[in-house]
Amino acid sequence: MRVLGIHLAPLVIPLERRLQTYAVFHHVSTFFFLGISSTIFMVFLLFTPLCWLVLPYWAWYIYDFNQSSRGGRRFEWARRNIIWTWLRDYFPVRLIKTADLDPAHNYIFGSHPHGIMGMGAFSNFLTEANGFSELYPGITMTLLSLKLMHYFPIYREYIMALGVCDVSKESIQCLMKRKGQAITIVIGGAKEALDASPGCTRLVLKNRKGFVKLAIQTGAYLVPTFSFGENEIYTLVNYSPPGSRLRELQRKIQQKVGVAPIVINGRGVFNYTLGFLPYRKPITTVVGHPIPVVQNPFPSQEEVDEVHDRYLSELKSLFDEYKERCGFPDEKLEFVD
């Protein structure tokens, strides 16, 4: 039924679909609002008679501030919560394995594209909804995010429980000390979110080589991954093409604050036209073959460039091989600065 151009959801919906919508509402609300709201709440309480309730937490916060750079604090029960299977089935999200990973090595997964919130990487690498640990036995996966995300009180505890650490050099070197470790980096970052629009596959990867240098320094193998459908789950209301004045303004703001200034539209809880929930569009994450890397604590620029070129080639081959079976036969992959 439509009212004033808004497509309303039917009143009678199977319980299974309601649970899926609840899971997505929980995740999206947490992603967008928990960090800011928890910070405001915890700071506000400091200036009330109830400050004694939060002072112990703030003391812990200061003591534990750099834990996200020291391996984090993951809990398997958080990663295996049933809510993540509901989240997976909402789209649905799939995971395709193309090769085994030897636990005798460490791995750096490059996750592409960033999209609005990296739903494919979250579902497949940060939770056990698709059985990552069973597909890759002996591999412990950690997803890396901006250090900024770990500044927010309460929210930092939530994401660390799932296995999130920050993307600093110190954090990566700490995680790579033990064998059988894998980290996922959403390489395009917030800059790539400016192109998170349906029909667009533009990856900010042409000159991003820091992850390659770290792979060589630590001896970690590189693993390209691509999530088909990641850019289809939201519409960018303020999408602007590269080179436009609005895009340049967005780039400058993103460089200053670390977050892309975008306006998105999806669906709502009770309608299919307006809202901040993602559309029900399938997402398929394909994990490519590992690229062997010879460890060198002091790699030359030529060595970094060579491995980077190999990574781009492997990623493009992975994209071209799977795009048709994942529903994007005419999609073209573009690497940009």
Arithmetic mean pLDDT: 93
Tell me the number of strands.
13
Largest sheet: 7 strands, mixed
Derived structural class? alpha/beta
* Form type: globular
**Contiguous runs where pLDDT drops below 50 for at least 5 residues:** none
Describe this structure in words.
With 337 residues, the protein is an alpha/beta fold. Strands 3-12-9-4-7-5-6 form a 7-stranded mixed beta sheet, with helices on both faces. Helix 7 links the parallel strand 5 and strand 6. Helix 1 packs across helix 4. The protein is globular and about 60 Å long. The mean pLDDT is 93.
What descriptors fit this protein?
seven-stranded mixed beta sheet, single chain, two-stranded antiparallel sheet, 12 helices, alpha/beta, globular, 337 residues
Write the layout of secondary structure elements.
Layout lengths: L1 E2 L2 E2 L7 H31 L5 H13 L12 H4 L3 H8 L2 E5 L9 E6 L6 H8 L5 H4 L4 E6 L9 H8 L1 E3 L2 H7 L5 E5 L3 H5 L8 E3 L5 H9 L2 E8 L6 E2 L8 H13 L6 E2 L17 E5 L13 H22 L11 E3 L1
Parallel strand pairs: 3-12, 4-7, 4-9, 5-6, 5-7, 8-13
Antiparallel strand pairs: 1-2, 9-12, 10-11
Helix pairs in contact: 1-4
Question: Gist?
Answer:
The chain is an alpha/beta fold and 337 residues long.
